[in-house]
Amino acid sequence: MSWEMTGKYTSSCSCQLICPCPVDGPPTGPNGECRGVAVFQIASGNLDDTDLSGVVFAFANWFPSNLSAGNWKVGIVVDDGASDAQASALETILHGDAGGPFADFAALYGEWLGVERAGVTFSDDGDRSSGSVAGRADFTFEPLAGPGGGFTTEKNAMYGFAEEFRIGKAPGHSDLFGLDFDGVYGEAADFAYASEMAENAPRGRV
Prior knowledge:
The chain has helices at residues 84-94, 101-106, and strands at 3-13, 34-47, 50-51, 56-63, 72-79, 109-118, 120-124, 129-133, 137-143, 153-155, 164-174, 181-194. By secondary structure, the chain is mainly β.
């Protein structure tokens, strides 16, 4: 199988600023956990002959410890405007069955929570971004200011959904898959993933 997808994502988690999970530090959310949700909007992509362009999905996570320790809980929600074929293709990719960065993730999954369908939305005005899942998750990301009017970024993290991503605050709430949390930290960036990626490409992280 061959796949690729590019687009934008935004995320929120329960860790305090600044979340240590990208550098494999112990989570700083309540009870020493990280509960989070990331919403992805695919601009273009495919799995073999299945076109994924325009699909929006949410990736929900529970990290009980530093990420490399594994035992993650992960579930996804695919927008109900996507076709069954598109939802099935995304499950194949995100479950790690088609290679690429999510296959690296899959080795750390402790429990796959499955795939649900619901209305998933993503918006981005260039500075702030937001994600929601049909009344069950809703958050808005606002980046931390950087020098000269720019944004604070994190680059080349061990567990990053992009090589470089903006970091900031992302208040909101989510109860996807029973993983209730109030959002504190957030991040946002463009993403580009494929079944075959350069050796130094980012591994990815929620």
